[in-house]
Amino acid sequence: MANYNYDEAGNMAAYFVLTFLLIFLVPYTLASLSTSKPPSLSGCQCQQCVAQREQIRKRERGSLLTPKLRRRTVILLIGWSIVAFFLYKISNTENNTKLYDPFEILGISTSTTTKEIKSHYKKLSRKFHPDKVKLAVNETMEAVEARFVEITKAYKSLTDETIRKNWEMYGHPDGRQEVSMGIALPKWIVESGNNIWVLGAYGLLFGGALPALVGRWWFGNAQKTKDGVHAQSAAAFFKSLTEESGMDDVTASLGKAFEWDVPTKVGKAETDLEQLEKQIKDKLEDKWDELVKLAEALPGKHESRRRAFILLYSHLLRLPVTNPTLQKEQTDILLQTPVLLNSMLSIIMSRNWLLPTISAMRLHAYLTQALLPGQSELKAAQLPGINLTEAPSLSTSESFEAAVSALSKSESPALPDAEKALERLGQTEIVDASFKVIGERFVTPSSFVHLLVKLRVVPLSKEGHIVPVPKHTKENEKRDNEFLLGKKEMEDLPQGDYTSGYAHAPYWPANRKPSWWIVLADVKSNKVVVPPMKITDVPVANSQNGIDYRSYKIQFQAPQNVGLFTWKVFVVSDTFVGDEASRDVILKIDDPSVLASEDTTADDDISDPEEDSLAGQMALMRGGSVKKLREEESDDESSTDDEEEEDKGNSSSDSDSD
Fold first, then answer.
1. I need a labelling partner for 297 at 20 to 30 A (CA). Which of 430, 450, 472, 576 fits?
2. Residue 450 backbone class (left: φ over 0; alpha: ψ -120 to 50; beta: rest)
């Protein structure tokens, strides 16, 4: 019977720890490698954007002397260091679990005969007998004797019948051996004096720490929605927004969520925070009190919310924040706003409200460009050198021509940067928007319809006006059908670098790639027809690269009622203020029964033969239906016959007279 002993050297413990470490580290490392390398994209080359990107790089990666290690990197370094230690320990540990093999000990093959074994043993005895071996520098007599005993046992296990039987039955010449089964703990840990501590450690680990870790993970996930925001933030969005909520309501609702999703350090840098609030109040006057009341960020009630709301509006008003603590808090708040706004959009879309949907989408761009929400007249302030005070008089609906002209007349040093920023700006244009049903010419009730939208970005010149590009008039039905039959929602771009680079966003604390939403809405009822689609990489119109537009599709089920539905397609940018486009679209739902009757009538007109034709006569004989001749046609034919007879008569009389 085998005896169970503790692992003297701790080898089993090393294998145990190594196994669990690799189970965790391998997938964690692969996930880190797949997401750690950001895409290398070009960005705006104005001085403000270049400086902002450098600041972002320092914040995310640190400097050469003070590198910034993320928590994931620290975990991986520690984990793989422990793995390396245990691998070294295992590789340098003697393996005592090797099977006994007398042939290997004697250095002979398994096909060796008994006579050859005896002859070989005599040679080994003369060489390794303790009386004939001269001890080396680091060799002891005990080691020499042990080696000779091992050789003798191997010889006898192959020549002595009893010993050979023990080897064949039990795998050892001495018969049944004690089996050492490690329990992944070295013996010194579980000696009599340490038993209570070992039991206590196991109890804390598996009875306390592990359940606490699992419970924290479980209840932590329960507090988050599928969009990754706190459940109370989602509840605040649901309660505070209505069908008529505008930009101020959406911004105030966003401010409420900061209390749970972006906890701030209340009590620190209060003096600087009060100065910021005073500057905000000087600029907004009574409007600030209304916003604070709307967001329920009154002093003394929701200090964390109030602190975040002040930092949010200091960004929107482009007020400098000098305190490092407040700077970090403001960055965390801004980086969390896209997640919160996406969650807000999901809640709004569950009710299909149009006005708050468009407001939440536009708020993305106002936050990116650091402009007061809802004030589209500040559009010109997106250019370097244009401040918030002079922007209203220089903003136009589509171009930046007035702003560039003002910079040029004043010989502003910011003019070159403004021209560089214009290279990243443009005006989104809807080339075409239509409804398509695959394989059908008409749309019937409850059929699956595709909204096909073709988009492009019209570039801006250095003077700030829209560059004239050829109007797209050519229909490419084959290209549309191939795209509709595919599974992708965005049309593939041709080979080459056509993807959008980083946008002009000098106030946003992260590299930002421009995106857009496509919204199909019923403006009259203030409803969104289908969930919006988020898109990216809209190509810039350019006759040289051969790309005039890119197609996008949204599939939905047609209404059940027959009639005309006048809807509107909106394309809203999440990066640039004022970069929007819209177009009216009409969806006609035809009655299937009417279409069927029209097809039947057309088929009848084609299939029935005429009465006076050979096919018509044969159809009459079979009792089938034929196309009746009209009376006018028969009269015309009879008159024609009469005229022919008169002509014949006249010709015959002429011949008689001759």
1. 576
2. beta
Judged against a pLDDT cut of 80, whether residue 49 lies above it is answered with yes
CATH superfamily of the domain spanning 427-601: C2 domain (2.60.40.150)
Q: How far apart are CA 565 and CA 559, in angstroms?
A: 9
What H or E segment, with its residue span, contains residue 83?
Answer: helix 71-91
Q: How many CB atoms lie within 10 A of CB 628?
A: 12
Q: Classify 224 as helix, strand or coil.
A: strand
> To which H or E segment does residue 519 belong?
strand 515-522
CB 511 within 8 A of CB 504: no
Contact 340, 235 (CB under 8 A): no
User: Which of 561, 566, 557 shows the shortest CA–CA distance to 590?
Assistant: 561
- 530: Cβ contacts below 8 Å, ≥ 6 apart: 451, 520, 554, 556
**C-alpha–C-alpha distance, residues 293 and 611, integer Å:** 87
Q: Which residues make Cβ contacts (< 8 Å) with residue 371, sequence separation at least 6?
A: 316, 378, 379, 381, 382, 388, 577
Delimit the domains of the chain by residue range.
Answer: 102-170, 192-223, 427-601
Structure tokens at 99: 């099977």
Distance CA 302, CA 641 (A): 104
Token output for 623: 């009792």
Q: What is the pLDDT of residue 498?
A: 60
- The CATH number assigned to the domain with range 102-170 reads 1.10.287.110
334 neighbors 318 (Cβ within 8 angstroms)? no
- Range scoring the smallest mean pLDDT among 198-202, 370-374, 435-439, 600-604: 600-604
- Distance set, CA 206 to CA 195, 196, 209 (Å): 17, 15, 6
Q: pLDDT at residue 510 above 90?
A: yes
More confident residue, 271 or 493: 271
Closest to 490 measured CA to CA, from 458, 515, 473: 515
Under 8 Å between Cβ of 304 and 263: yes
Residue/partner pairs of 234-240 with CB below 8 Å, 24 or more apart: 234/343, 234/347, 237/343, 237/344, 237/347, 237/348, 238/347
Burial 179-210 (b: 16+ CB within 10 A, else e): eeebeebbeeeeeeeeeeeeeeeeeeeeeeee
Q: How far is 526 from 612, CA to CA, in rounded Å?
A: 62
Phi, psi (5° rounding) for residue 482? -65, -40
Quote the tokens at residue 56.
């972002």
Q: Is 383 helix (H, G, I), strand (E, B) or coil?
A: coil
Q: What does 532-578 look like in DSSP terms, one character per residue?
A: -EEEE-PPBPBTTTTB--EEEEEEEEPPSS-EEEEEEEEEEESSSTT
Tokens 């988009």, residue located: 455
579-585 LR contacts (CB < 8 Å, sep 24+): 579/365, 579/425, 579/426, 579/427, 579/428, 580/428, 581/427, 581/428, 581/429, 581/430, 581/455, 582/430, 583/430, 583/433, 585/433, 585/434, 585/435, 585/451, 585/520
Side-chain half-sphere CA neighbours of 414 within 13 A = 18
Could you give the CA distance from residue 380 to residue 369 in angstroms, rounded to a whole number? 11
Higher pLDDT, 519 or 619: 519
